[in-house]
């Protein structure tokens, strides 16, 4: 049981225009999020955002600091968002235990020293998807289920983008410093997410795709609206989206994805929309 991490530096639009497929994948794709008995992190220099996964199997798995943070403990200057995409689990926060079922979320505020992940059944281990951002203030730890979320249904089957957006860890549901997380579920027959596409220069974002059926894939689109690129993704992979980039995808089947973002503000609607027929 241990912690691993990798760092990703920020790239300019001009640099990304010159990248081939392998370079795009190396810079932006997080190919492996979960590993048994390991807490895996990708540390992005876009807004110092961290995305990763904790998968306790044979025993508890503690949240540990990593060298880039230069901190005594992980949440010394950070906040943490968790969404369980696996079997039943428990997150121990100092002396309080929170049970997290499938697709349930937990927010943990700055200053908490002890966080331990548990699986209820090692045959069906929990898979805790993690996002973390720098924090300036301590807000209370809180569990959020889909019943507590702000739910919005958008799109239509006729345009292949009928979807339900579950706003879980957002400022309309609970207080955070800058982290926001939610989950979008596509209806059967729909394949497009976040379409029409948009950018938000004041925030970066990370997408985590899951419930992608075996043998199916998602094509994730990124880049400037008039200079788009794409990355083919598989189940339980994540992708980093710079503030200047669109972030949208189309699957060969319907699927679910978790979005997490951070940056200048907490205004969910602060985005610059891109006309579909003007994308290039």
UniProtKB/TrEMBL annotation:
It catalyses: 5-dehydro-4-deoxy-D-glucuronate = 3-deoxy-D-glycero-2,5-hexodiulosonate. One of its GO terms (molecular function) is zinc ion binding. Keywords: Isomerase, Metal-binding, Zinc. Pathway: Glycan metabolism; pectin degradation; 2-dehydro-3-deoxy-D-gluconate from pectin: step 4/5. Zn(2+) binds at residues 198, 200, 205, 247. It is an enzyme of class 5 (isomerase). Belongs to the KduI family. This is 4-deoxy-L-threo-5-hexosulose-uronate ketol-isomerase. It comes from Chitinophaga terrae (ex Kim and Jung 2007).
